User: Fold these one by one.
Assistant:
Number 1:
Amino acid sequence: MTPWPDLQTHREWLAAECRRLLAFGANAALPGGGAAYLDAAGRPDPAHGMQTWITARMAHVYSLGALLGVPGSAPIADAALAGLTGPLRDAEHGGWFHALNTDGSPDRTGGKSCYDHAFVLLAASSATLAGRPGAAALLDDASAVYLDRFWDEEAGLPLDAWNADFTRPDDYRGLNSTMHSVEALLAVADAVEAGQAEAWRERAARAAHFTAALAADHGDRLPEHFGPDWVPDLERNRDRPDDPFKPFGATPGHALEWSRLLLHVEATSGDDALLKTAVRLFDRAVADGWAADGADGFVYTVDWDGAPVVGQRMHWVLAEAIAAAAALHRRTGEARFAEWYAAWWDYAERHLIDRERGSWRHELDPDNEPAATVWPGKPDLYHAVQATLLPRLPLAPTIARALRGGPTTTGATA
């Protein structure tokens, strides 16, 4: 039997779902630039202000839409880019504010985060490959800020945050911002001149190998939080276990996302040592997270023995599970990955894909009923759109370069 990822009818279904998702965000562009946080019906929700990570993700997604030739995508990408080059940019101190408040003033309380800046890098890379106006200059700017402020060359890993004026780095280090940095570093490598690409890929590979060693030391349950010396802090946020960005314990969804990212790094570097870690992370995440409390769906977090801590089901975890299963099936040919892939799309259709109001429900409770305790509304499209694209693309190059086609700065064809 032909596995789902390779069936032409399934690939057509993925393409249709991608277009449906892009249509949901038709009202995301904000006057004056930027992208809105969307509510459950796809309307801008002004209560959340304008957030850099949302704006950058939407610039990335709609740049991909433009590369796909989906009408209406380019204007949304351009509006989001205008937010990144305009009001969200800190003209005085450099870099990007975390957000604009509801009155339009910059949010200076959250400082400058690597998480936000990694997504600006990703957005600028995709927009550059999509030929969007101003994107190349944004990529130059974002690259310089990232290397100057966030990349720690000695550690081979990124700093997590600074105060608002870039005078004091935070002592916290995080695997979430490191993970999204790896994605962004690979994307930059595919968007810059060939002579610059290898340095960006080497940075991604250093962070990937750190994560592989971390997995080996912790039974393939990845610590998320660290001090300035990168020693894991396994107790952090025990009192806030459902934090949307820094939860306590291990996060199966991040293990799945890392599983896929390690394969992308392998495909660009030829280092097949990462494959074993990718498989182990996948298997541990599935064993710990899938139906761990008796109902289908991935629990959000588990403790260091693998017991569920937060039973909410997040749409992004399922999207990353789908993408990881597709990547592992492509890399290994093993039928079990195609079987999980099919099972998880079935789950998405039953519980997450909202055929009435659009997009995917971002959060479900442990009974798979819609919830909004962690993620109210349907803020953006990043994870779901990528789940429709990654199964149709090679492991290298990255999404935007693969959609653009033509010469690449990597010889990988995985």
Number 2:
Amino acid sequence: MPSMIIQHKVKDYAEWKKVFDSASSLRASSGELSAQIFRDANDPNSITTINKWTSLENAQKFAHSPELMAAMEKAGVVGAPNVHFLNEA
């Protein structure tokens, strides 16, 4: 099963989480199957998400979508995110 890992900093976790939650239907309609959120133990505004997808193509398409870029801006993401695509071994 393909996965996408996104790591980024946010201005405020609580505000970011509201936007993340409000985008769940957008992610699901794009092929997301599940999402996990992790916060850095030393910096709670440093976020890592691990998202499972129906296909690698859907994950890559979503990662480059204008909808995701707009949501990240609205959520207060600081700087460019690090995005990695993985295939389960």
Number 3:
Amino acid sequence: MNVMKITLSRSPAAETETECLAVVVLDRTPTDRSAKDKDKDKDKSQMSVETSEAAVREAASELIAGGEVSGKIFETTLLHRPAGLKAKRLLLVGGGKAENFNTTVLRKLAGTAARFLKPKGIASFAFAAPETGIDAVGAAKGIVEGAFVGDFDPDIYKSDRKDQTLEALIVVAQGNQDQLQRAIEEARIIGESQNFTRELVNEPSNRMTPTVLAERARKMAEEVGLKYEIYGSDKIKELKMGAFWGVAQGSDEPPALVVLRYEPSNAPASPVLGLVGKGITFDTGGISIKPADGMEKMKYDMAGGAAMMGAMRAIALLKPALKVIAVICATENMPSGKAQKPGDIQIAMSGKSIEIINTDAEGRLVLADGLHYARKLGCTHLVDAATLTGAVVVALGYVNAGVFSNDERFYERFGRALDNSGEKFWRLPLDDEYKESIRSNIADIMNSGGRWGGAVTAAMFLREFAEDTPWIHLDIAGTAWMEDNKPWIAKGPSGIAVRSLVELAKDFRS
């Protein structure tokens, strides 16, 4: 993991000595102008460099006046040897319309700056926090988080890989030094933890087996001071995790049950937040085998488990006064002579019987036992994360992840966490009528309700195992993997859910 040095500067941006100073440019053209006004003002620049420093604005003025800077979101314009500045370069990063500018946009702009500068061999830069629209503390946090996201690239196995990483970032911001420093340190921890998750998800399945994933969890836990337990097949059978074992039995790779515990001395006995992650290190679909097209991406089917590991890393370092227990169920889903078959009956740890309709609906099986086990360990609130269904991608595309909940108060708390994290989730229903789709004639429940409403019926299945415990289900199948390179983030693993889970834990109350 790249260790980027982050420093705070409360000196004027113009006085900052750096390889490059990045500033935000917003389009402040009124959107409600009449046609006559638009024609009258067509030659007038409406671009605003978001700083009160005259020297910085003056350095950018010629580019703006010449029309080279439009303020379009993610637009990058680099100026060498800017007059009046100590920075060697000035990078103008377009933030789009001023009325749409917020911390989420700023986070992406910081990532855009990082990704623009890295290929040019610029290993350190400064980013000036905008002085309008966002408070300085929130801006500093967003800049650091965004820079870490932008610094990650997935090409670690290329033989000609150029080691282009950011070595240092200066956050230029005005405000209370202690508050700014705390925000920057918190953002560094969260950014590193999100990238830790992305590193895990990026690994191919021959290098990220359940055993290796468990070992990475152990190593991380020792580094940050988490308690941990790692179990194999014998313990899974002893606990009567029949749903989990039903998936694991088809693979030659042994499964792993990972438990991570954050139990600070200043935390009350209750609440206890439980984080349950799907850790399918490769998903062939089992006997209900997937099509070959795109199957190589199924190494990312452990993104939910990896997100829980990243969240636990950040929580351990940020030290909220809350007990948190993570349960990660790791296995491969493989076809073999030992694999479970459609029509089989598995008995979950809770005692519920499950008719296996489709062996490719395996994530909900491992989570069923993971959720029940988390409750047995004393968790009073549950969040699970999983690349669970293709149906959520059909419903929401690659923009929003799906979220479900059986408890309004708990969901409202998660909504506040989303406001702070900037991650995009969209709530989907859990109406009782959907349960009819997963009723079985031979067992208590089926593991698949068919094609229609597939994300919802999968969540209904999991609700059976959360029972009356306040619970949130995150279906991240469409957002855990970026399908294309974006200005602020590389194609590949996104690390979604880490920031939201950390925000949830930071200020958690029963």
